[in-house]
Design a protein that fits this description.
By secondary structure, this protein is of the alpha/beta class. The chain has one domain (2-280): Metal-dependent hydrolases (TIM Barrel). Helices cover 39% and strands 15% of the residues. The chain has 10 helices and 8 strands. It has helices spanning 15-24, 44-51, 71-81, 104-121, 137-143, 155-167, 184-192, 209-217, 247-258, 262-276, and strands at residues 2-7, 27-32, 55-59, 86-95, 125-130, 175-177, 195-199, 223-225. Helix 9 (247-258) crosses helix 10. The two termini are 16 Å apart. The mean pLDDT is 94.
């Protein structure tokens, strides 16, 4: 059985069919990401988790909604994070890709505040980080060098790792680098900081050679697989709406990269997920 370590189940109009398709494809457990359409609806994933035994949830304020990380929203997150079915805080992080995103300082403040809530709850975190490397010229101008003159397309990663070193790793808690899209150095830094690398459908894309190299060589006990559904459909379904059932394509591709069977990949990533989230492991 496979585990989808990151999917947005509250985005589906026909959730029962989506879950049935996942079950038929051999997806035994799903982690529903609780960002909603913003803090006002970040509880929806937890509602789904309470209604379905094989679904667990997160809760968090996405960096694109960082300007909504008000004291009231953070208080709501603190309450959700205490719920046993909420097993992580996320997805949280930094997004320097869209020119219309909140200011750097606003994103960083929201991230730091949520790291404190996760540490208080003793829950892992799920990190979203998107750089400006492929962004528009306007986004590059805004995010690559906000405090200096030298452009840095990896500013989001640099800022993230600096913030995590100061505000997260001292707590000794783990986390997930969701939809890992960084390079080898960023992978090594993430693993050293206690993170798991979760690979999504974009690892199957022909131009994703850097991600593929990381996916092939990452330590076996630090890899996960996800869909990010309904986004990022893998090859051969790219362009279609993604769903948790499609994780089989990503898992098969990742297994081939690593030179192992799909069954071995499923067993390893399932074991890793249960190590990260012990309460999700079925009773013997």
């Amino acid at each position: 059985m496979l585990i989808d370590s990151h999917c947005h189940l509250d985005d589906y109009d026909d959730l029962p069919a989506t879950l049935a398709n996942a079950q038929a494809a051999g997806v035994g457990t799903l982690l529903a990401i609780g960002i909603g359409d913003g803090p006002a609806t970040m509880h929806r994933a937890l509602d789904i988790a309470h209604a379905h035994q094989n679904v667990f949830a997160t809760a968090g304020i996405h960096p694109q909604e960082a300007h909504q990380a008000t004291p009231e929203a953070l208080a709501k997150l603190r309450t959700l994070a205490q719920n046993p079915r909420c097993i992580a805080v996320g997805e949280i992080g930094l997004d320097y890709y869209h020119a219309g995103n909140p200011d750097v300082a606003v994103q960083q403040a929201a991230l730091i505040a949520q790291l404190a809530i996760a540490a208080e709850a003793r829950k892992p975190i799920t990190i979203h980080v998107r750089t400006s490397e492929l962004a528009t010229a306007a986004a590059k101008a805004r995010y690559e060098s906000p405090f200096g003159s030298q452009a840095n397309p990896d500013a989001a990663w640099d800022d993230l790792l600096r913030i995590l070193a100061e505000h997260w790793t001292p707590h000794g808690l783990p986390g997930i680098m969701h939809c890992f899209s960084g390079n080898q150095a960023q992978a090594e830094a993430s693993i050293a900081a206690g993170f798991y690398l979760s690979f999504a459908g974009n690892v199957t894309y022909p131009k994703s050679t850097t991600i593929q190299a990381v996916a092939a060589s990452a330590p076996a006990d630090r890899i996960l697989v996800e869909t990010d559904a309904p986004f990022l459909s893998p090859i051969p379904l790219r362009g279609q709406q993604n769903q948790p059932a499609h994780i089989t394509h990503t898992a098969a591709f990742l297994a081939a990269l690593r030179g192992i069977s799909t069954e071995a990949l499923a067993a390893q990533t399932t074991a890793n997920f249960h190590t990260l989230f012990p309460t999700t492991k079925p009773a013997a």
